[in-house]
Design brief:
- The complex is a heterodimer of chains A (109) and B (283).
- With 109 residues, chain A is mostly beta strands.
- Chain A has strands at residues 7-10, 14-15, 19-27, 49-56, 59-65, 75-82, 86-94, 99-108.
- Chain B is built from nine helices and eleven strands.
- The longest helix of chain B has 13 residues, at 129-141.
- In chain B, 31% of the residues lie in helices and 11% in strands.
- Chain B starts with 29 loop residues before the first strand and ends with a strand.
- Chain B is an alpha+beta fold and 283 residues long.
- Classes of the chains: A mainly beta (109), B alpha+beta (283).
- The A-B interface holds A 4, 6, 8, 10, 24, 26, 28, 71-73, 75 and B 73-74, 76, 79, 82-83, 232.
């Protein structure tokens, strides 16, 4: 399993209804591609985050498949329209079966 | 800031000025998180006798690379600072202490980074921040030394640099440190390697010019440790020195050697007046 995996998220605390907000996420992860070999010539097994999703109040905002060519500590930035106050749920799926989650509240005035 | 090209020893680089390249905005100002102003241009200190103005390496990078440092969330170096905070609070060694046991919060160390390398009276030597951290580990904590310029250490120096951001580098070069400073100065102006290049040939005579595809900076070290996009990790000052000396096709001094400590003191002193910026983001 990958060590020191820490998700980080930035969502504005408040927004006005219907506003387009920018969400930034970063997860520290080695994203080992599975193409490299160690000193003894053995293939280093692939270990990447293969899927990332974001939901707002249970509704899907974005669902991404990540591929091995994505570099270490993947940073994802996207926009979303917020109709109402609620919670963004973020989920990262690791190759080794681990799932990392985090959430952020937003207040819409 | 563009200077006239001066000859670089026997090197025969293509001297044509490239066009269509994304040059840095050399007049941009560095404001981190929209609030912390960082001095990236300052009048040169008197002892940097061949410079009028000193400029941080940030100035020479492309707009996109510069942008990484405007927001801690987007600065990949800050991930390593988080790891540094973890080590800061971790109890290690026979004494059962962590860094925090003596020093409190890492924020208490604000300004420390800006004064290193620094003369140590008891040890009668000039010490880099790295040497001081290791001294703390072996003498105070009874823990193992960390390898010079390797990840544990770089995470820690990145943490210490990050809490000193916005404070001017102020390295003492007089008194007992003078001898090491002179040695560092000699190294700076000594040509090495098959290419017969000194630090000054690139970073004093030709900053602002291109060395093939790369935009030469003054080689200031106020931004170290540096997250380099080419290797996606933090890089220490001595490792960078080694890379530079190697590129002149010379046998290099070792990372952590007295020669590089002296050179670090001298190069740091050339940046007296620039703000601490680490962990910075560079090519």
């Amino acid at each position: 399993m990958a060590d020191n995996v820490t998700p980080r998220i930035r969502v504005p605390r408040e927004a006005s209804a219907g506003e387009t907000i920018t969400i930034k996420t970063l997860i520290s992860h080695p994203m080992e591609s599975g193409q490299r070999k160690d000193r003894d010539g053995n293939v280093i097994p692939r270990s990447i985050i293969n899927r990332f999703t974001c939901e707002f109040n249970g509704q899907s905002v974005i669902d991404i498949t990540l591929e091995p060519a994505i570099s270490t500590n993947p940073f994802l930035e996207f926009q979303a329209i917020v109709p109402e106050s609620g919670t963004f749920e973020f989920t990262w799926y690791d190759d080794d079966g681990d799932i990392y989650t985090d959430s952020k509240e937003i207040v819409v005035s | 800031m563009k200077k006239t090209l001066t000859s670089i020893g026997a090197v025969c680089f293509a001297m044509a000025v490239p066009f269509g390249q994304a040059f840095a905005d050399e007049d941009a100002d560095l404001v981190v998180n929209g609030e912390l102003e960082i001095t990236v241009r300052a009048p040169a200190p008197a002892h940097a006798e061949n410079l009028d103005e000193i400029t941080s390496g940030w100035v020479y990078r492309s707009t996109e690379t510069q942008a990484f440092q405007l927001d801690d969330f987007e600065n990949p170096g800050m991930i390593f600072v988080d790891s540094g905070i973890e080590s800061w609070n971790t109890v290690e060694g026979e004494a059962g202490e962590s860094c925090a046991s003596c020093h409190g919060d890492a924020e208490e160390m604000a300004g420390v980074s800006a004064t290193y390398p620094k003369w140590n009276d008891d040890a009668e030597e000039v010490r880099t921040l790295t040497m001081q951290i290791n001294d703390c580990r072996t003498e105070q904590m009874g823990a193992e030394e960390w390898a010079y310029d390797k990840s544990d250490l770089l995470n820690m120096t990145a943490l210490l640099a990050s809490v000193s951001r916005g404070m001017p580098v102020n390295v003492a070069i007089d008194g007992p440190a003078a001898a090491a400073w002179e040695q560092g100065r000699d190294l700076y102006y000594t040509r090495t390697g098959l290419l017969e290049l000194s630090c000054a040939n690139c970073h004093e005579d030709n900053y602002g010019n291109n060395i093939r595809a790369d935009h030469l900076s003054q080689g200031q070290i106020n931004g170290f440790p540096t997250y380099r996009l080419k290797n996606a990790r933090l890089n220490g000052v001595h490792s960078r020195f080694r890379g530079c000396v190697r590129d002149t096709r010379a046998e290099t001094y070792a990372v952590g050697s007295p020669e590089f400590v002296a050179l670090e003191l001298y190069v740091a002193s050339r940046g007296n007046g620039l703000d601490v910026e680490g962990p910075s983001v560079r090519n």
